[in-house]
Amino acid sequence: MITLSGNEDSGENELEPLLVNNGSGDLSYLKKVEKQENIDENGGDDMLLVDKMVGYQSRSSRELIYWLSIFFSCGSILLIFYWFELFYINTRFKKSSISSANHVLVYSKDSRTEFCKVNYLVEENEKYIVFRFSRFFFNEKLQEYEKTKLINQYEKIDLLRLVENGLSENNLQRMKQRFGSNEINFPVKNIPRLLMEEVLHPFFIFQVYSICLWIAEEYYYYAGAIFLIATVSAVLSLREIRGNLLSLQKIAHFVCPVRVVRNNGRIETIHSTDLAPGDIIELKQDFVMPCDAILLSGQAILNESMLTGESIPVNKYSILSDEEIKSFKQRNNNNYNQQQQQQQQQQQQQQNIIDISDKEIKDLSKEKRSLIFGGTVVVKILSSPSTNDRILCMVRDTSFQTTKGKLILSILYPKKSHFKFFMEGLKFVGVLCFLAVIGFCVSVWKLNSLGVDFGTIAIRALDLITIVVPPALPMAMTVGTGFGLSRLRKTKVFCISPPRLNMAGKIQVFCFDKTGTLTEEGLDLLGIISTLQSSVKHVNNNNINNSSEYKFNELNDPKITFFNNTTAMFRVLMASCHSLTVINGSVSGDPLEIKIFESTNSTILDGGTIGGGGQVISLAATAFSAQDTISYLENFDFQSKLQRMSVIVQLKSDNACFSLVKGSPEMVKGLCLPHTIPRDYDSQLAMYTEKGYRVLACAYRSWDSTVSFPKRELLRKESESNLQFLGFIIMENRVKPQSPPIIQRLQSANIRTVMVTGDNGLTATSVAKQCGIIKSDTLLFMGLIQPSSSPSPTNGIEDEIIWEPVSQDGRGNIHKLDPTTLLLDEMNRDYNLIVSGPVFKQIYNHYLATGSPRFINMLRRGIVYARMTPDEKQTLVEELQRIGLYVGMCGDGANDCGALKAAHVGISLSESEASIAAPFTSTITDISCCPNLIKEGRASLAVSFKLFQFMGMYSLIQFTTVILCYFHASVLGNWQYLYQDLVVVFPLVIFLGMTEPCEKLSFKRPSGRLISFNMIGSLLSHIIICFVFLIVVFHLVQSKSWFDEPLLDEDNIFNYITTSLFIFACFQCSIMLFVFSFGKPFLKAIYTNRYLFLVYIITLTANFIILFGGFEKLYNFLQLRVIPVSWRSTLFVLIIGNLIANCLVELSFYFFKSRSKKKKILNIRMIFSKKNNELPKDSRIFNTNSVSIPIYQDYSDTF
Known about the structure:
Layout: H1 28-42, E1 50-58, H2 60-72, H3 77-83, H4 85-92, E2 93-96, E3 103-108, E4 113-117, E5 119-121, E6 126-131, E7 134-139, E8 144-147, E9 153-155, H5 156-165, H6 169-179, H7 191-199, H8 202-216, H9 220-252, E10 257-262, E11 266-271, E12 280-283, E13 292-295, E14 299-303, H10 305-308, E15 314-317, H11 322-331, H12 338-351, E16 361-363, E17 371-372, E18 377-382, E19 391-397, H13 403-412, H14 421-449, H15 454-468, H16 473-490, E20 493-495, H17 500-504, E21 509-512, H18 514-518, E22 524-540, E23 543-552, H19 568-576, E24 581-583, E25 586-588, H20 591-598, E26 602-605, E27 616-619, E28 628-639, E29 644-651, E30 657-663, H21 665-671, H22 681-689, E31 693-702, H23 712-719, E32 724-732, H24 739-748, E33 752-756, H25 761-771, E34 779-786, E35 800-805, E36 831-836, H26 837-850, H27 854-861, E37 862-866, H28 870-882, E38 887-891, H29 897-902, E39 905-909, E40 920-922, H30 929-966, H31 974-992, H32 1013-1038, H33 1056-1076, H34 1090-1109, H35 1112-1117, H36 1125-1160, H37 1179-1182
Parallel strand pairs: 21-33, 21-38, 33-37, 34-36, 36-37, 38-39, 39-40
Antiparallel strand pairs: 1-2, 1-3, 3-4, 5-6, 6-7, 7-8, 9-16, 10-11, 10-12, 12-19, 13-17, 13-19, 14-15, 14-18, 20-40, 22-23, 22-32, 24-25, 26-27, 27-28, 28-29, 29-30, 30-31, 31-32, 34-35
Helix pairs in contact: 3-4, 5-11, 7-9, 8-9, 8-15, 9-31, 14-15, 14-30, 16-30, 30-32, 30-33, 31-33, 31-34, 32-33, 32-36, 33-34, 33-36
């Protein structure tokens, strides 16, 4: 860590690392602590997390070996070095200790490697490496390179000095050395570099080898055509890669002029690239943030839609108050003499008022309300008089250390998944290569036995390799994805990670946020339920005592019924307890808060400064109250973990001050004085939440504005305690009309739907029932936390979790749920769980400590997760993935960015196409995009499999044809190769990818594995059938009376065997396309793809013309020999037989696969078919050397 202070006297000690030391010489514990701190700080999802580092040194002997190998291999070994980086590193460099290394091989947490050169800072006598655009400096104590970190805790006096003086020149230079330029810029490879990488790809090298071989065989036209195809394919791939990188760079790179405070308060205008952590910058209206910063003075309102997809403005508050900055300036003002300062200090001591505490610690990591993210836009500022109406903030993170920078890194280095399609595709190519080797040996043996010269044998044998591995295979693997993404763009769904599309076809569980996703963004105000204090008589031991009791009034609509005297404070709260602001003359903020505010007939009076001249609320006069003005003294924003927000306000009419609190009913109830809570509090709450209404609890207390607190956290804690309960605000959260049918559609497709929300459990359950996530006949149990009566050896001091039945018909009362396993007493009975955030945390932490299967059963049965924080949402998604499920997540991006990024398929509902909150963004803000994305994912996956099968069959059919020709010392002609590749195969491959998905989502999902029984079995069966029919044609043609063997040309192309095999092989390719075009239930029929169907008809017609036409000129052009009419009829009969056999085989595997799928899935709501002992082992539990990362329990009184 690096300390940063405004005190220039600190000198060299300013940048000393602050390390944790356990008091022993063993540094292994220290390394674990450091790594654990990195994980905790970054949420475990930082692209800069390092697994291990290996040092390497340059040695003259290794360098000599490296250059000699290049010389003796004529440079060909450079290709091996390029393909196998580890081989290159171990050849040219020698392993060494990290401390003596001049190169470091970094193994990242995402299983990637990067070879980094060691750089030196001569002046500082330090060395560092650059890993993923960030500098890692060598730590002598840990003996490894680590990312430079800034401290989070500052003394208030240091922050005040920074506001006054800015960053000193000495500190500025040190920070620039540590963090480099403030620029999120990555090198976009130029066209020659990309072209070179494309050319050096193994498949392209193979294509070059094929072209050279064909030229040697004088197949000039065919070689030219394949060269043209390969070149066009490479150019298109290059264009797509470069286009994606340029688009990402356009989003990432941003430079602007910035006004900074430096060198004893001097104002300078610099480029944002020259910013360094600790710099003090000035904010202006419409300013785009070039870095992450902490607001030190004033107040700002920002638009964070670029990062989160959520366009609701966010308020940011300074960590230093206006009074603190004023007091500091007065103390440092030269116009005040020492006597005046002493008098002022004595006066302050007498009044027991502390304006400033020099030693007070500010923890910046906890000041979320003051953190401004890079890439966000300042839409409004409220200036501070103490800083001459300037809004100042301190730069925290720059370049790729910022939140925006880390999001860009996550796109440049996407998280690897367990999707095995590509790797198994390479294995399949390996199998084809093995067949090529066998064919090579057979052809050499046979051609040699026929007396063919050695040169011809070598060329023809090598030619087999080019036949078995088709050059167009790489393009065939991606053509389906490209067409799928283009169709999605037409439906307003945009993608920044194309490989995720295939994963969408495997989705098993889809998690949905509630508000703004399943329900309308704006809630309607149903009404308020206020409390009324009444006098109650209690009879005790024949004594009659009068006491007061709070009761609920009837529900009323404040839009219709005016607020009366008993609800005056309720009106004040509804008018002021919010984070709304005025932007460009209109009220802006959370739609829920806007609805509540509008019901009070109040007006927000905009102010240009904070404090007394800032934003105030004007309350209109009513029949029961005169006009009044509300001014803000303090504002505490809503926090997910606290489940509430609050404000401290002052009324102008009587100068009375109040603390007003609004939040979740469960949380607010615990903050109120018990006697102010009505007896039917819980029943009233349940009545409305079970109907699906959003319920907010409101409370207040009188406040003494003269009392000061040394810490803002203590101020909030005190102002939100001992409250008097006011009542409920009832909001009607309407379900979007698209939600229920889409949920039903997903469930019909065997996709489990789960709600993950921060709302109340009963409200979420009601909405889940309205959407269809919860069926009417489902047994439901809700987890409730109750304080444990006594600690036990098994649960320690854990609170007890009670699972109460919440089914409407009461059937849950006859069934019991084991709280230790979460299993029902009736094994075959379906049931689901309603899990709250605190319950989730407790069970998760218990799982990490003990490995209890209760957590796995909760994941299996949980259907509604309520009161979940953003971190808990992300943990839920990651844990579902860990047990082997493909997980989708759909949200508005506001508080679920982590979950959207973690999911296999994350969809952000946002009006901004440029949002990088998730791999997919839908500008149509409802969940109708989910089935469309799954459909396209399944279609893309199915097309990829179909094309792989078709290309494999085509190559093996041609391979068999050529081998049989070799047995007759013959070969296919140049124009025959051209016809098969460019007329019969290539157009069909292109247009097959255009096949659209079926409208209906099927119950089953496409396979994600190439190497499976169905896939291999089907392919082998088709290969055997085609091979047998070709053998029949080969032998049958030689048995005819008209068969002769004259040598009509030098290569023996013009003969009956070559002609018969070529024609039959062309029909076999057409047959295989017809067989593999059957894509239901994922793809539409072949005739719906107009281009494919037209090309297929043309190809089939051309084949029949060749078979039955008998045109001599055509036969001569194709190097064919005219065959008798009777043999043509025989070939036609064999073609029909081949077609029937292939269709029967494909249908049998289709029905077998359908039956096996049905056997695996017993219940549509039960996607989890694996037993506990079949789940992947969790290294956090089974590996004793690892460090578990629990979700720490947040208590309401903890700050």
